Batch of 4 targets.
Target 1
Amino acid sequence: MATGRTHRPATRSRGIPEATVARLPLYLRALTALSERSVPTVSSEELAAAAGVNSAKLRKDFSYLGSYGTRGVGYDVEYLVYQISRELGLTQDWPVVIVGIGNLGAALANYGGFASRGFRVAALIDADPAMAGKPVAGIPVQHTDDLEKIIEDNGVSIGVIATPAGAAQQVCDRLVAAGVTSILNFAPTVLSVPDGVDVRKVDLSIELQILAFHEQRKAGEEAHPDGTGPAAVTRESDASADQGPDGDVPAVMPA
Amino acid sequence: MATGRTHRPATRSRGIPEATVARLPLYLRALTALSERSVPTVSSEELAAAAGVNSAKLRKDFSYLGSYGTRGVGYDVEYLVYQISRELGLTQDWPVVIVGIGNLGAALANYGGFASRGFRVAALIDADPAMAGKPVAGIPVQHTDDLEKIIEDNGVSIGVIATPAGAAQQVCDRLVAAGVTSILNFAPTVLSVPDGVDVRKVDLSIELQILAFHEQRKAGEEAHPDGTGPAAVTRESDASADQGPDGDVPAVMPA
DNA sequence: GTGTGTGAATGTCTTCACAGCT
DNA sequence: AGCTGTGAAGACATTCACACAC
């Protein structure tokens, strides 16, 4: 299953921290915008503001890549764009397949940010025979039966799953068996994959739930300017259980 | 990533760790599935496997909510579903507006995972006059001109931005001025918001770039048959997943 | 003077391992 | 005997603050 791995030995000095990797695309976007406006150099302070992080973090992140700045001056925009692109592997072309061409799949297929970042939609795949041949975003949809051939013919190593939850694991298994080693999963399910396959997961529902948590907290705390927040946790007592400011009525929710 | 809140003051002593909050929806989904199969109790080990995390982490997470388990036995499924729902604020109804009804906005409007989790699409808003009145997912699209009125009339506090990048900040400003305090941003741009407004961001392009980074690394190091090679990843990230049992399609993406 | 690069300090998250309850 | 709940240890991430290069 997806979890795993009791042993991950010490990171060799070569590795870039995961948190840093996750921010590189952010910096890259900000730099690209500067590049388009022909801005030659930028300071950590300015770039950090554009990327929405603080400058100390940005400098620390860049320090893992190397010393690409000039003290007293800042960073050369074009040079940094290249270095980050290279580090992320975007100087090469990544063919990608999208499986599941429903509302979401179509939206993804139409997404313009692909080509500009080294990604190319190599194929669209759907299980519905009625979809086969229909062009979406200018690319004809192909049937799931041909999935393996499509992967192999195009040398695809990155797959995007936009199917309903029920189909996701099966699609995933076929993708992996055909040679895909990185998966971006939009289906609301936990995928299990063999070791060495990378899965990232995006789900609207989770994001909204996290927002709801903070939203609820705001509402509950606006009567506590001192920060004493609503009721301390109900340790021990499993009977009473209540803490929210507004006593909500029970009833476990439906699915 | 996602901004937990632009700058949370140091006064956070009673709170649930952000990392834990981000996993609660995951547990909730696994529990909901168990509930539907009428499973009465579950151990931390089993539930952890279903949610794709390890059991120590899960127990620690639950310990922040209270002592809801029974030693030697496990957790009562229904009870936990209720407790987590309440903690996340899902026992109440959250009206949500979606702004920008393009491919992505339509996909979001059609997303089934809303209602099942306490979210209700109160309105769809688009700047294109040609869209006005057209029903998407059974809900008529309204024009941007009426944004403020819609927000106020429906008591909306959560907004979803699915517009092109160029329009996002402006839409955001209007949402915030009208009273929205939580925003889920699908546009590939950094939004600036006043203190007290919570923004989370979902960006397809970033997810793909992170995958490309690891993919490149695998390719570069595949000469390590002894296992010294690249760490098995199976990422979880901060923008992740969830949802209900069958066939919902989540969505995401920038323009 | 200006702004980078980075050790050291601080804070957060995960994992371990076991005491304690059922 | 079994499984939770949690201090303590460890890994990881962020922030501080300043020496150093330009």
Target 2
Amino acid sequence: MSTIKDVAKRAGVSVATVSRVINGSSRVSPATAKKVRTAVAELNYRPNLLGRNLRKTRSERVLVLIPNIANPFYAEIVKGVEDVASQHGYSIMLCNTDSDPEREKRYVKMLKSRLADGAILMASEMTGEELTELSLEIPIVQCCEYKAGLPITHVSINNEMAAYKAVKHLIGLGHKKIAFIGARNQFLSSLRRKEGYLRALEEAGIDFDPACCAYGDYSYESGFRIMKQLLKLDPRPTAVFCVSDMMAIGAIRSAMEENLLVPEDLAVCGFDNIHFSSMFKPAITTVSQPMYDLGCMAMEALINIIEGKKEGTAEYFLEHELIIRESTVKQDSVC
Amino acid sequence: MSTIKDVAKRAGVSVATVSRVINGSSRVSPATAKKVRTAVAELNYRPNLLGRNLRKTRSERVLVLIPNIANPFYAEIVKGVEDVASQHGYSIMLCNTDSDPEREKRYVKMLKSRLADGAILMASEMTGEELTELSLEIPIVQCCEYKAGLPITHVSINNEMAAYKAVKHLIGLGHKKIAFIGARNQFLSSLRRKEGYLRALEEAGIDFDPACCAYGDYSYESGFRIMKQLLKLDPRPTAVFCVSDMMAIGAIRSAMEENLLVPEDLAVCGFDNIHFSSMFKPAITTVSQPMYDLGCMAMEALINIIEGKKEGTAEYFLEHELIIRESTVKQDSVC
DNA sequence: AATATTTATGTAAACGATTACATAAACCAA
DNA sequence: TTGGTTTATGTAATCGTTTACATAAATATT
């Protein structure tokens, strides 16, 4: 591996000149510039990023912490993040935390150790205190899941309103006994979605039945298992609102096993509009989050903080959309 | 941000001593060690990784280049990679190339610039020559997709045999007209799977019909579109072997639209055994790759190269398994 | 008690870049 | 010709670590 010294020696110039040619940071005579460039080519020289970043105390790199790369929901967000990042000359590196606080801590440690200029956190497991402290040390932005009341910029949707609209849709179809499959975690979105569910029920004058509510972990398996239980209720629910598409799919498979028809015997509504929700049969009615845009926005906000263009913290709420498909309304042939 | 110098000053010792305490690299008297540790705590000091890595010319970090994080197939592999990595004290960073040669080049550049100690490449778009050159500069391992004949370690499965077994299964069910939905790319796996398909046909004395073969890009959409075309053949195929589960699901949706029953009118076999293939209705018959193990193996091989434990290149082929589900054989209730 | 060994710590040179400052050469104006 | 600019390049400090080497103090050995 050749260094800038080797190049300098070969080109017969000083390291400073080589650096100038590489970075175009100041004038160099065309003749020497050419000598340097041939030396660079001959030695196949690449500047060592560690040295450069150390000196510049900037890496033009940001970390993106995702709880679970297997969740297709995050894939689309990451696309948005990446696109904006590369437009601005930043590289992104994904860190899969698996929702494991220990793993997350490892990556946060790297972040604090200046391996990157900042980070986008999705569904962080850190406490509000830890997050605030981190944000004082290094630029961060919360995307999708966030803790409220912290002095940290975040980008998300209006979860309460989204859930309200979804449940209102079910009510509009004539359902009276509507189950709720939520998420058992500390995130605000979980709370807000429950609130939206409750508001829709209340508005329609439907009594809230705690037995109709259960909590999973967004996964197919949890949706399946929970629905199995809910179907044992008497009278059983005729509709269910799930806070993830994966759980909605699990719920549908559960209903199928009981020989129930979806949507005739059980209407199912999901959340996220993952790619798969339109591939499934029946296609899933769901709330579409603008995942790509969420990613873009988060990255833009982060760059603004890193480059000091924006002071203070901001809250961004992007638009969502209810997408009605076969799992709540019988349709002809949809794909 | 405090540095090792600040800590040294505060503790009233030299930077060398601080470094020794932090790394436990040599004996320090308990009294001074304690002074150092309190200073570290008081200043909330974290060693700067750039400085450390620069000095050590080691980062204990590896890059994992994935073509598409939205593809759940890779998620499980990454889990394996991560587990082995963290067992050995390495961190991994995911780089989503989106199968875009330009993006891939950017990450490879970072790799060459010593941002990481090595990399695992899945489905690299680089030429054999570029790959070979890269492997001379820095440790790399190819995982799943690989180019043959290169002096680069790789980990994968026996694709020819896997395809052969899958098609043989279809033949065993009595099918005579079996379509093939492959992948249009330069990867060896695509070629080998086609070869396995051909061998099974030949062995059964079934004539190969080029009209029955078409090529997509592993996606749901391509499977859907291609199957639409194949179903127009007369006589139409009664079975299809797809080289990805996503395409298999697309094919099934296509058949459904034509009011064909799966598996009665069309038997469908996929490849990969992604999580979703068991969630779908009908559940997909597929070839299961040991994704987690592939990831583990790749990471182990990479560490061996990085740490100089193993010389030369190796080829690892892990076991696969044909998983028979509803999309080829009518079953009672399966989940 | 004199010497050899061990232990604890400090000094300073790396690692590979960037960049403020210095300097020499070339050019220009009067 | 002289002094003042401008231009091109080099020297050396710096970023934050680790670590080889040096040295002083403490301990062991005879």
Target 3
Amino acid sequence: MHAKTTEFDPELQELALFAKLLSHPARIAIIKLLAAQKTCISGDIANELPLSRATVCQHLQELKNAGLIKGEISGLNVNYCLNVEKWRTVKAQFEGLFSLTIHDISCNC
Amino acid sequence: MHAKTTEFDPELQELALFAKLLSHPARIAIIKLLAAQKTCISGDIANELPLSRATVCQHLQELKNAGLIKGEISGLNVNYCLNVEKWRTVKAQFEGLFSLTIHDISCNC
DNA sequence: TTTGTATGTCGTAAACATACGAATTATAGC
DNA sequence: GCTATAATTCGTATGTTTACGACATACAAA
């Protein structure tokens, strides 16, 4: 994050961070897989995506650091799942933005 | 956009691009200002944000290139406004994501 | 036509994101 | 203990974003 972004309203900063999480198709794909419980296992997730294991792992860590997913070691595998609590928070933030009342009557563009 | 992102489902790519638009607090702030019609004029928008005019202009162009806002010259000023049509499209895409049914019962994390 | 004001573009520096091979860690099973 | 396997971290190359001063453009009004 650039230094300047900290000068914005904290709510705006948080929403921008959530948006950044969703700003790569791999991360959206991961969230969708986990929501559908098609697979939990790191390797299986990597196999579903057109990226190397290393890159997928990087995206997984990004989602994990943000608290949006949780990971749990199970033998040789690692199971990931959505943090439903956090997902609800993200959803609520976006819904706040999208429920803005739009006053576009006086606009001539 | 990296070459690899084109290998994902086009719907996912589009949503990721919309998310990228919202991934900077300045751009969210601009959208909120325009939605509230607090101001339309480029210079006034710049004055509301803790960034230089040049940088704000860059963010405005980014939103404009994506079709999310429209700009119209009016004498010395430029009036911007939200493209309500496009905003509805963005909203619908996100709502699609957030209306995912979550199957987290079998997950132990 | 000159001057001032509002915008936008250019060039560029610094920070950040994406991607992956190679090395590392950690567990399972022999 | 060894070996195989799964996952992650490291190092690094490449591309993108953010930020802004300086310059360019375009209109208005003196």
Target 4
Amino acid sequence: MGGSTTGRRGPYAGTAARRRTILESAFEVFSEAGYRGGSMRDIAQRIGIAHTTLLHHFSSKSDLLAGVLELRDEHDQPGLAEAGGAGILRQLVEVVRRNQRTPGLTELYCILSAEATAPGHPAHEWFRERYVRTVGHTRAALEQMAQRGELREGVDPAREAQRIVALMDGLQVQWLLDRDSIDMAAQMREYLRRVSVPEI
Amino acid sequence: MGGSTTGRRGPYAGTAARRRTILESAFEVFSEAGYRGGSMRDIAQRIGIAHTTLLHHFSSKSDLLAGVLELRDEHDQPGLAEAGGAGILRQLVEVVRRNQRTPGLTELYCILSAEATAPGHPAHEWFRERYVRTVGHTRAALEQMAQRGELREGVDPAREAQRIVALMDGLQVQWLLDRDSIDMAAQMREYLRRVSVPEI
DNA sequence: CCTACCGATCGGTAGG
DNA sequence: CCTACCGATCGGTAGG
């Protein structure tokens, strides 16, 4: 796929595109084998370059991982912030539905988050912050729902937010192990219905 | 710690004990680094033997992993089967409480289950079967509760069982990333209270 | 239970 | 963007 025969249109013109190509290959490899298990030679081979060439675009293997996580960040942010209250819950189901269509992203987060629970892991802090952010957004949405009277009685926004995020992660493990065993989006929808007031 | 100076009491007398020592070291290493990331040399070094000696007790690295999983199986089975109906839900909270006291086991399952979502992984089938078993037991308990009228209206045993197991797994990821951020047992208890009829 | 060693693979450097 | 190469480490074998 890589290694076009057309050549560059100007000096450095292909660098940004090359970085992108590399990150997509790294994304694939890390999704399948994790960070520890994925090799730079494998990443390079898939796009037909020498593994040392990666080090002209990224200073180290962990820098490559940082690039992959940054790239996914851009893709995942939009949407969740805009909707208010119960709208966010519907968007969470939408996120799960999208994950179900793009297993690669689900694999990446699943394997990397588990690997990154080790304190020395290069993605450890990134995942810690990601959970603070994700749980925080969900909590804010639930608090907004509470103010609007959309939240079912007895639901604590802070603890419920942790459970919702935990449920999403846990469903993914079962789904990745056996994709026919579970319908993640349906499970999520059914669960979230229990959090809102019955009328919604 | 290992390598006693007393010598053996008889031929092969120490073999079973040695196997046990090796498995405990392997358990530690796989918990911290996963299967791919954990090395036989590390496992051996922790108990003061050469890594090749491991291969006198286990035929390969994946055989070592199988031994570790088998060992944990023995530890985890008791209890869950005995109690009936709502008693099982209380025991689930007890399991979570125990996980919270022994982080090593939690780490092992978390990192290995994510790694083992890859189809070629030596523990892939083990985890698939484990989920069938765990979800199945939980489902049976919920069905028993339904027959006794202990289950809240609208709760589907099969899908609820998948969610309960998913919740346990997901809580563990957040907990391992930041142990002060979450009280797994309390979260579990609070959630399960929502599954039973209010009187229980 | 050991030493000695195998071929393979790892991330990264040197130098062009 | 490459070749050539580094030292380290991997799982496993041979042979005692």
